[in-house]
Specification:
heterodimer, A: alpha+beta, Alpha-Beta Plaits, four-stranded mixed β-sheet, two-stranded antiparallel sheet, globular, B: alpha/beta, seven-stranded mixed β-sheet, six-stranded mixed β-sheet, 26 strands, 19% strand
Chain lengths: 242, 699
């Protein structure tokens, strides 16, 4: 039985440190977000940490939420691609096929989470920094869409090894995404949601704090958040933009 | 769709354990290139976790502006004009210089423990040099506070996984304070690692930092009043009988607690007496509870009092050396000639160094591993003083502000190319050392700093005990083997070293600190913070603060860290000043308006960020930017707030009180776009379906 990859993000553990953000950029050959890129509002962060204000000084809180691609089972980005560049794998991952993509950007428009990023420019690194690039991940060229892949190269690698190892099933923990691996508070847990023994499934199946962001849209995300606990949460409705 | 076979990549991965700072690391190396840094799951301080700074170490190796060969000054000092030189020539030259400058050589490094510290000590002795160390000044105050309150030279760790109530006084322990990965790992367990308890965390500070943002309650206080609030807490606990009065009198000997009732300090501290009382009750009743202090609390003229008063609270609730409390660290397992943790030189002593430099006392200055010209305030005049040294030699990978003053630059290996044996400070509560090994060959024609010193000493006719620095590391590992304890079991020295390399270090979980004292050994008198600048002319407090990703500026050259949004403002690639909305309104400025910060020491222009969590009396400016060079990603970016700081010192330690200056904010009429993450994607809490859902408790 093929796995169904998913993620749990515990907002009560997350501290907003953004180790996940840099770990993802290092693993996935994300172009450097220069000052100019930020001023153009075109920063690429496959996982980002949003900050929301809640309340007013002095009773004010800053709250953090890491946002990767939700890998929706009913992903609104998928049916709108005219060239089938946006595709759902049998293992539940929402993938982007770079060499099919013609850059209509319709998928990005249709994504409610804004986790798809268009390459407006050819990505550039100074020559020496190219030595760091991950050989298992394509560098995306100008004109194509890119997004979180749940570190598909790590999954492929592990599955390949398991096949060579007599075709055994993957063990829980054998694959981890770069963000989850770096996370110092262990707020992010990744694994097979269909394996009842996996850590991610056990959290997802037993938690009383689970919720999905924009669940009412019915897209069935594969990322489950665990609610932030705040014993003295101020009344809601006052939170401002991230 | 057609499923492609798994992409074929020629080559294979190798994974090597090494270390940086307080963390054990595993680095993925592919075809001789370092690709990705992960935490070492076995190393006891971080247990597999890492942070943004560790991740960015690969960019240090392959940085396009890394110094690739020895350089000799060809223009005026400070001009940045250099020509290439050969290693043979520069090492001979350095040997001659060292020989000719006996008794007149100054060596500047960070406080070094382990074999590197040993090499520097031996070098300094062999060539009759003087040695001074630089580290961020609040760290000096912290070390003295730990010595006074807990009687140890090593910094303590925490056992947050078993703590019920944590209060931090200005210590940004999740992001910048001493060992953020270690504390973050524990914090996850503190919040959600236990079935029945979710730890409660309050934060008392004059600026909401990335840690305070995660607190259950934040108490914004007037800058520098951390110690006062701690005494008021003690007063409440004693007067309400929550703790033993005799213990409190012993802990705060010389201080009459009755003078510090909440009513008496509330106005000064800027919070209500009720808030202090509630904090005290929670702290006393929520045992095991912990109180920590650092960062800004240490950077005032009364920094030592602030820290000692807070750390002493732990004695009142019996959490020193106890489960869920402050865990003291034993000294590192090194032999007596290998140095352990030590303090940097306090600011007051740097004035003496500068005077000596100006008097022409030093013919040769060797700088390694630190950038004091950047890290010490402009007011000290270190840059100008270096011009009076006969010759300045920098052992450095980058053209930072200090290296820019050098006559000779010798490029050194970066972290991932170096040998080393590091005793993390703070350690995990028992003896542990991380073995740092080169995971890749040097990317440029650099040398190990230790080797340069050994060769220079040899060329000067002195001899050090080892032919290379690697031998010093191996000797230190072999002395660990002779302890006959710890995690490694191997038949011979060679096998032992290989095992240490593979595991990433040595540790002995049973070798913990000796029992903790009952009370601070030396009392510290209560003190009020003092500020440079008349409040009428300079109405706000200038609070520089360490940046989440750039720290005190040491990682400002790395693009991933420049591009990483600040946790409060989400600003990137720049400097800014945080102002409360009411303060900004009064000045008539908004986010992006450029203002002039004027202190008695000088002025600088920066854009405003209107921060709804900023204290109304505070103008907070991040540290880390304002480098003269330091490579293309740092050069000419933002300001260094230390240039605005009046050089007041902490009253007992002489460390720089970098938060002890007042400031006036003047408008300039100019506006810029502040680069920041905010606004990159439309993100807002939705009515009825919030992005972040918050509940009062688990059940």
């Amino acid at each position: 039985m093929s796995p169904r990859w998913g993620m749990v993000i515990d907002l009560d553990r997350c501290t907003g440190c953004q180790a996940c953000v840099v770990a993802c950029q290092a693993e996935n050959n994300i172009p450097i977000n220069t000052e100019a890129v930020y001023l153009q509002h075109r920063a690429i962060e496959w996982i980002r940490v949003e900050r929301y204000w809640d309340g007013e000084y002095p009773n004010i809180k800053a709250r953090y939420i890491p946002v990767p691609c939700m890998h929706c089972s009913e992903a609104p980005c998928e049916p709108v691609c005219p060239v089938y560049a946006t595709y759902h794998t049998p293992e539940g991952i929402n993938m982007q096929v770079y060499n099919r993509c013609i850059g209509t950007r319709y998928c990005a428009v249709n994504c409610h989470w804004h986790v798809r990023f268009f390459n407006f420019w050819e990505p550039k690194w100074p020559e020496s920094l190219q030595n760091q690039l991950n050989p298992n991940v394509s560098v995306r060229s100008r004109g194509v869409m890119e997004k979180c892949t749940f570190c598909i190269q790590r999954i492929n690698n592990a599955e390949q090894n398991a096949r060579l190892d007599g075709g055994r099933p993957l063990r829980d923990g054998e694959v981890n995404t770069a963000c989850a691996q770096a996370c110092p508070t262990r707020a992010i847990v990744f694994g097979d949601l269909d394996d009842p023994e996996s850590q991610v499934a056990q959290i997802a199946n037993t938690t009383t704090r689970g919720y999905k962001v924009l669940a009412e849209l019915g897209t069935n995300p594969s990322v489950l958040y665990l609610k932030k606990i705040d014993p003295e949460a101020p009344a809601h409705g006052g939170a401002e933009s991230a | 769709p057609v499923l492609n076979p798994v992409d074929l990549v020629f080559g294979r991965d190798n994974w090597y354990a090494t270390a940086a700072g307080e963390c054990g690391l595993i680095v993925r190396v592919f075809e001789g290139r370092a690709k990705k840094v992960e935490g070492n799951p076995d190393f006891p301080t971080n247990l597999g976790a890492s942070d943004a700074r560790a991740q960015a170490l690969v960019q240090e190796v392959y940085h396009p502006d890394r110094i690739a060969q020895p350089l000799r000054l060809s223009g005026a000092r400070g001009s940045g004009e250099y020509q290439n030189a050969s290693w043979e020539d520069v090492l001979t030259e350095l040997g001659n210089d060292v020989n000719g400058a006996r008794g007149a050589t100054l060596v500047i490094t960070p406080p070094l423990s382990g074999p590197m510290g040993q090499v520097v000590n031996e070098f300094v002795q062999a060539v009759d040099a003087e040695h001074v160390t630089y580290e961020p000044e609040d760290r000096i105050v912290l070390r003295e506070a730990v010595r006074r309150v807990f009687g140890t030279d090593t910094l303590p760790t925490l056992d947050l996984a078993n703590t019920n109530f944590l209060v931090s006084f200005s210590a940004d322990f999740l992001h910048t304070w001493i060992s953020p990965v270690q504390f973050s790992r524990q914090y996850g367990e503190f919040r959600q690692g236990r079935e029945d308890v979710r730890g409660t965390y309050w934060h008392v500070s004059s600026r909401m930092d990335g840690s305070a943002a995660n607190a259950d309650r934040w108490l914004p206080i007037t800058p520098g009043t951390e110690g006062l609030v701690a005494l008021a807490m003690a007063q409440v606990m004693v007067s309400e009988g929550l703790v033993d009065r005799a213990v409190a009198e012993q802990v705060y000997s010389g201080i009459s607690l009755d003078q510090y009732a909440p009513d008496a300090v509330a106005e000064t501290a800027g919070i209500s007496a009720e808030q202090i009382t509630e904090l005290a009750r929670r702290f006393a009743e929520g045992q095991p509870s912990v109180a920590i202090a650092g960062s800004l609390a240490a950077a005032h003229t009364n920094g030592l009092f602030n820290l000692t008063a807070v750390f002493a609270l732990n004695y009142l609730v019996g959490s020193v050396g106890q489960e869920g409390g402050i865990i003291l660290n034993p000294p590192p397992p090194f032999e007596s000639d290998v140095p352990g943790p030590s303090s940097g030189l306090p600011y007051s002593d740097w004035s003496g160094v500068v005077n000596d430099l100006n008097s022409g006392r030093y013919q040769l200055v060797i700088v390694y591993g630190v950038d004091p010209v950047y890290g010490l305030p402009e007011a000290l005049g270190l840059r100008e003083a270096l011009a009076n040294a006969g010759k300045v030699v920098a052992l450095s990978s980058f053209l930072d502000d200090t290296t820019l003053q050098a006559d000779l630059i010798l490029p050194v290996h970066t972290t991932l190319e170096s040998w080393g044996l590091i005793a993390p400070d703070p350690g995990p509560g028992f003896q542990a050392v991380a073995l740092q090994q080169p995971v890749v060959n040097p990317f440029v024609d650099s040398r190990a700093a230790g080797d340069i010193l050994i060769e220079a000493a040899t060329a000067a006719g002195a001899s050090l005990p080892w032919p290379t620095y690697e031998d010093a590391v191996r000797a230190a590992v072999d002395s660990l083997r002779q302890l006959n304890r710890g995690n490694i079991d191997a038949p011979d020295a060679k096998q032992y070293f290989v095992m240490a390399q593979a595991q990433g270090g040595w540790w002995d979980t049973s070798e913990t600190a000796e029992s903790a004292p009952d009370a601070p050994e030396t009392p510290t008198p209560a003190a009020q913070p003092e500020y440079a600048g008349d409040p009428g002319q300079f109405p706000l407090y200038l609070l520089p603060f360490p940046s989440n990703s750039l720290g005190y500026g040491e990682t400002a050259n790395l693009p991933w860290l420049q591009a990483l949004p600040d946790p409060m403002t989400s600003a990137v690639w720049s400097s800014w000043v945080e102002l409360n909305p009411t303060t900004a309104d009064r000045l008539g400025v908004d986010t992006g308006d450029v203002v002039r910060l004027v202190t008695p020491r000088g002025s600088a222009e920066v854009p405003v960020y209107v921060n709804p969590a900023a204290h109304p009396d505070v103008a907070a400016v991040p540290m880390g930017q304002g480098h003269t060079d330091f490579g293309r990603y740092a050069k000419g970016r933002g300001i260094n707030p230390l240039d605005l700081v009046e050089p007041a010192t902490e009253s007992e330690t002489g460390a720089l009180a970098w938060a002890g200056t007042r400031v006036r904010v003047e408008t300039t009429g100019r506006k810029v776009r502040l680069p920041r993450f905010e606004g990159q994607v439309p993100a807002f809490q939705l009515e009825g379906a919030p992005i972040i859902e918050v509940i009062p408790s688990e059940h």
